[in-house]
């Protein structure tokens, strides 16, 4: 494995290209072995035996297995214990079953619908921050690092919706969890207990700090009066610990802390990363931005979605589904045979770990067709069942009894925040963007920046549509004078042509030239942004993911 990784490290870096097939970079040994041995093979790490499964039927069998004899790998759970403990994300057997039963109702669709207004409030804070950034950078365009802002948004939603507090109160918990995630992610996921004494001490210190902060919030809740109408996930966890007669005092505290850590982490990190990938892909494909704006104008005339209008956002759903296909937050489905068990026609001895690499499954050309590595949301126009040959091969949230608890929350949250952003801003990738997916317990980008432009979408966009129907965007005299002084190969002229074709509904794909003598001067760029603003009524925002 180290040899394969070393060979990759010494190959040229082509991160300037946005290629969605990143598995050979992040997981080179799996890709190497898959090409050599096929969709099913075994390998070992020391004394531990592993079974790699990427055949759709067997993946379905593995995920939909109802037996408690197939659970999460214990050695991985041990390594992630400082982050997730023995909460619902990592526990097995009866303990997991009881935790799931207690917490699942808090994420049912009807419950999540009641959280939409909280998401809208948190989203307004995000929009205001970006508007202030644009104003501070001249009022036309701004370069914004969006991933951290999406984390703040998701953290605020999960804090308020599930724990009855603001992000300000939970900010320290989130920052400590992020620091802990960073340290743990530096260890090899296939091997446990790697890392020196200094690193282990750092992990232990962060774990104690997080536990102390969570327990402080718990004691604060226990000292307050909470009516049934105000019941949230934290209250549900507390009541579950109290009502479980099998838990002693120490176990009860562990149950509360571990499940709070699990929800704090999973509830904000994966959704924020998914939102960043959505922005990146929509920045690359402005025609889909335009389609979503049109849909929002029809479904949400006031620009604000609600619980009833969200299910009508079909184009939005297609885009999110395609983003989650190309960039699923979880890279793996992993299981361990806790007893001798059967998966399909394969007998799996006790102790063997099973792995499915989700990005590879999501890009299999035999399942998804020859365009499997391309961004094509239209493949989901008739739903997941018609998007590919084997619907069980689409598992961004997992499948079966251990499907992600927060699936409904994540989908609603993504629809809400993207609706707000796309209604308010136009955006494109920053020239500084380097496509560099990284695996840190989830698949994220090391840097994601993009360019945004504020918009009074509901009224001004209609005017743009009218001029479009009359023959396209009207360019004023200043713009014509500008074009006359541009050579045919001037990158600024090409950028303006790209803008005009996009506004007119005929997107023109062209690789940007942003380096050296061919780069458009900043003054020219600002002029073009002014043209965009005057033609669309939307100031332009360049985003960084």
Automatic annotation (TrEMBL):
Annotated Gene Ontology cellular components are:
membrane
Which co-factors does it depend on? heme
Q: How does it sit in the membrane?
A: Single-pass membrane protein
MF terms (GO), sorted A to Z? heme binding; iron ion binding; monooxygenase activity; oxidoreductase activity, acting on paired donors, with incorporation or reduction of molecular oxygen
Q: Which SUPFAM superfamilies match?
A: Cytochrome P450
Residues involved in heme binding: 404
Subcellular location per the Swiss-Prot or TrEMBL entry: Membrane
> Which parts of the chain span the membrane according to its record?
none
* Primary localization: membrane
Keywords recorded for this protein, A-Z: Heme, Iron, Membrane, Metal-binding, Monooxygenase, Oxidoreductase, Transmembrane, Transmembrane helix
**Is the keyword Oxidoreductase assigned to this protein?**
yes
Family, per entry: Belongs to the cytochrome P450 family.
Protein known as: Cytochrome P450 714A1
Lineage, uppermost ranks: Eukaryota, Viridiplantae, Streptophyta, Embryophyta, Tracheophyta
């Amino acid at each position: 494995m180290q040899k394969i990784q070393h060979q990759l490290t010494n190959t040229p870096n082509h991160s300037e290209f946005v290629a969605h097939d990143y598995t050979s970079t992040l997981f080179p040994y799996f890709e190497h072995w898959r090409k050599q041995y096929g969709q099913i093979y075994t390998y070992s790490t020391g004394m531990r035996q592993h079974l790699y499964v990427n055949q759709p039927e067997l993946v379905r069998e593995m995920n939909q297995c109802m037996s408690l004899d197939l659970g999460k790998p214990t050695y991985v759970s041990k390594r992630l214990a400082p982050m997730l403990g023995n909460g619902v994300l990592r526990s097995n057997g009866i303990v997991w079953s009881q935790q799931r039963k207690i917490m699942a109702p808090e994420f049912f669709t009807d419950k999540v619908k009641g959280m939409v207004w909280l998401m809208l409030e948190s989203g307004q804070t995000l929009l205001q921050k970006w508007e202030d950034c644009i104003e501070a950078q001249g009022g036309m365009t701004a370069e914004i690092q969006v991933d951290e802002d999406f984390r703040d948004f998701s953290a605020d939603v999960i804090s308020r919706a599930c724990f009855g507090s603001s992000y300000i109160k939970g900010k320290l918990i989130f920052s400590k969890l992020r620091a802990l995630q960073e340290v743990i992610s530096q260890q090899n996921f296939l091997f446990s207990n790697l890392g020196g004494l200094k690193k282990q001490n750092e992990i232990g210190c962060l774990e104690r700090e997080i536990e102390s902060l969570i327990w402080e919030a718990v004691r604060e809740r226990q000292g307050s009066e909470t009516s049934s109408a105000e019941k949230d996930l934290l209250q549900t966890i507390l009541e579950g610990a109290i009502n479980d007669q099998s838990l002693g005092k120490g176990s009860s505290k562990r149950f509360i802390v571990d499940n709070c850590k699990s929800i704090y982490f999973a509830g904000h990190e994966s959704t924020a990363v998914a939102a960043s990938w959505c922005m990146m892909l929509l920045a690359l494909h402005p025609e889909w931005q335009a389609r979503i704006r049109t849909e929002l104008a029809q479904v949400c005339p006031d620009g604000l979605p609600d619980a009833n209008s969200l299910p009508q956002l079909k184009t939005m759903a297609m885009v999110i589904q395609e983003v989650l296909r190309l960039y699923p937050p979880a890279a793996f489905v992993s299981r361990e045979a806790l007893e001798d068990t059967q998966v399909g026609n394969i007998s799996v001895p006790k102790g063997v770990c099973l792995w499915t690499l989700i990005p590879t499954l999501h890009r299999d050309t035999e399942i998804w067709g020859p365009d499997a590595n391309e961004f094509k949301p239209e493949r989901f126009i008739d739903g997941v069942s018609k998007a590919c040959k084997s619907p069980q091969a689409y598992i961004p949230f997992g499948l079966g009894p251990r499907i992600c608890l927060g699936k409904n929350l994540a989908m609603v949250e993504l629809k809400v925040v993207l609706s707000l952003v796309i209604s308010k801003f136009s955006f494109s990738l920053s020239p500084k963007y380097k496509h560099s997916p990284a695996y840190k317990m989830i698949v994220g980008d090391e840097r994601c920046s993009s360019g945004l432009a504020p918009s009074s979408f509901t009224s001004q966009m209609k005017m743009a549509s009218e001029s479009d129907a009359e023959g396209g965007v009207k360019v004023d005299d200043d713009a014509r004078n500008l074009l006359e002084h541009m050579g045919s190969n001037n990158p600024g002229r090409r950028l303006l042509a790209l803008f005009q074709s996009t506004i007119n509904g005929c997107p023109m794909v062209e690789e940007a030239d942003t380096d050296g003598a061919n780069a458009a001067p900043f003054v020219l760029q600002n002029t073009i942004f002014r043209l965009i603003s005057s033609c669309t009524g939307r100031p332009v925002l360049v985003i960084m993911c």
